[in-house]
Amino acid sequence: MSKYTAPVLVVGAGPTGMIAALTLARNNVPVRIIEKEPQHRRGQRGPAIQPRTFEVFHFLQIPEIHERATPFLPMQEHNRGSLDPLNTFLMVEYTEPTPEIPYYNPKFMGQPTLEAIVREHLAKLGCTVELGTELVSFTQDEKCVRAKVLKHRRDDGKEVEEIIEAAYLIGADGARGMTRKQLGLTFLGTTREHDFMVVGDIRLEAKDLDRDHWHFFGQLSQDVITLRPTDELGKDGWQIIMSSRTNDLQGLIHNREAFVNCINEFIGLGDDVKVKEVVWASEFRPNMRTVNEFGVGRVFVAGDAAHVHSIAGGQGMNSSVQDAFNLAWKIALVYKGFSPASLLDTYTAERLPVIAEMLGYTTEMHKLMFDESGSGCTPPSIADDNGTSKNVKSNLERGMRRGKNMYMLGVNYRTSPIVIDDLGVPAVQLAYGEIQEGILRGGDRAPDAPGLVSYYISHSSQSVVSLPSEMTGSTRMFDIFVSTHHTVIIFTPALAVPFVQSVLATLQQVVPKELVKRVVVLPGSSSQPDGSVESRTSSKEDQAFDVEVLVDQVGHAYRGYIIEGQETKVVVVRPDGVVGAVVHGVLGLVQYFDGIFGKKGGMLTTDDAVQI
Questions:
Q1: Residue 9 contacts by C-beta under 8 Å, 6 or more apart in sequence?
Q2: If pLDDT is split at 50, 70 and 90, which confidence band does 250 have?
Q3: Average pLDDT along the chain
């Protein structure tokens, strides 16, 4: 295993590329991110952010995204030319957050706002987006990638060629990007030419049109325009989507007068509507395609460069961000020489089944929205939590209803080659399944658990763990998980259990100390009347193991991680918030970390440290 000094090159500065870059930067991996456009992108594009993606942002320490994102608005149907509501419904029902799922509701945020927030975090880590820099070609060998880029200088307009030597290249350059094409990856699927759409951002004055609903004028089977209010564009800002089965919209955005007239015609409110500005507009043909593998050698693709699909379901940006997060923590470990290059093969192994199932769901939802007769069946995304179809009042409501599998909380890697589960082979579970109450297996999303109170180890002769005299507050699992290390959670009824010492000693031998946070979680019932928990560990051992001891005072951790009675169990949570292992002994623990760090346990020798 080798260490590197050359940077990782990220091509494309949309959400995918920037989350990859931020994850690498958080892991102290040098990174360059280039963007061929001369300015940062405009356009709300796909604004839906799903609960699972909010968890990614939490682990990457970007709280502003959830804080500033706005809730989904009720949808309201109108006939063309009328503000009278025909039907009002919610695309998704509000769900009260739980201790295990603190982000339980999707929200909206336009991609320019999201990208600006992430850029600020990147800048704090010394990384800035290199605008006007386009990937032309690349070559790779067993040591590095050599990328030819063309830089468009803004001061004199000249183009300057540069050869960038990179340890790895991440292509987040979209469906038309260079990376996938030069790798020669297949991009099989279909294009729905007859479902052509125009999407855009406008500033609009409309008499009596409220900003409390997402408005639909017309019918999907004929002409329809949707208007979603967004203050990100101003108090008169709206995101629009237009489609037509009776008019040809192709090329419309290139003629502003014709475009504005068409908007007015589709709404049908005459002089009560005035388009003040077309901020941004684009044409969209739904494609449902995916690559056959997510990388070759040192070059990888993520996001739209790897898969494209319908806008139905709001999965695009979310699946792209999760691609980037899955890949980047693995590259960080390989880059630093802690893990073998074979770890990167699991990027395809884990993400390809997820994307394949996602394409199936979103394609079915697209058909339900745009095919007048539907598809003849009701996909899970419009069924209630018991699998029973919801009663709906219109075809639009039927096509737009979404179920909780779209929240992506049930997305899992149970079949991953690096996941270890001592509970045995898990029951059949789709990679894009629903979250399963009362079940936690290797490869699943790790749940949150608030109310964990820190105890410290007293180094007196009695050696007890005592509650501090001044309560310092509690913590939660999600604040322990970060993108820079694994978390090993040892659930035990008492510290005196030999199992605890065995696990801690094993970790000391097989895992680099800085890459794993060790946490012991005791049940709340283990506290003594005086607020102490007996321990037979010695002071010297405690200091050497550097373990944090927490008490699950309210019981959320023991319930969420399915710990019963006096059971001892170890749960390993990966840097991406996925349960990497569920084990009852040190053999399973060693097996898991051998899969991540190799048989050397991640420890480098001098001969391993080859630099480029």
A1: 31, 32, 33, 34, 145, 147, 164, 166, 168, 169, 170
A2: very high
A3: 88
The CA distance from 472 to 95, in Å, is 31
Residue ranges in 336-469 assigned as alpha helix (H): 345-370, 395-400
Distance CA 483, CA 408 (A): 19
> Contact, 17 vs 33, CB < 8 A?
yes
Distance of CA 176 to the CA centre of its chain: 22
At 241 the three-state DSSP class reads strand
Counting Cβ atoms within 10 Å, is residue 159 exposed (0-12), middle (13-18) or buried (19+)?
exposed
Q: What is the pLDDT of residues 443-501, one digit of tens each?
A: 999 999 999 998 755 444 334 444 443 345 799 999 999 999 999 999 999 987 899 99
Q: How far is CA 14 from CA 31, 124, 317, 436, in A?
A: 15, 18, 9, 32
Q: How far apart are CA 393 and CA 398, in angstroms?
A: 8
What's the CA gap between 588 and 432, in Å, rounded? 26
Is pLDDT of 377 > 80?
no
Task: Give, in order, the Cα–Cα distances in Å from 334 to each of 341, 342, 385, 507.
Answer: 6, 9, 41, 20
Tell me, what amino acid is at 429?
Answer: Q
Residue 392, φ and ψ in degrees, nearest 5 = -125, 155
Q: Which residues pair with 291 in a beta bridge?
A: 187
- Distance, in Å, from the CA atom of 235 to the CA atom of 230, rounded to the nearest integer, reads 7
Q: What is the token pair recorded at 534?
A: 């007996």
- Measured between alpha carbons, how far is 120 from 124 in angstroms, rounded to an integer? 6
Residue 600: pLDDT band with limits 50, 70, 90: low
Residue 432 per-residue DSSP state: B
User: Residue 155: its pLDDT value, please?
Assistant: 81
> Each residue of 106-151: pLDDT tens digit?
999 999 999 999 999 999 999 999 999 999 999 999 999 999 999 9
Amino acid at 424: G
Q: What is the per-residue pLDDT for 380? A: 41
H or E stretch including 189? strand 187-191
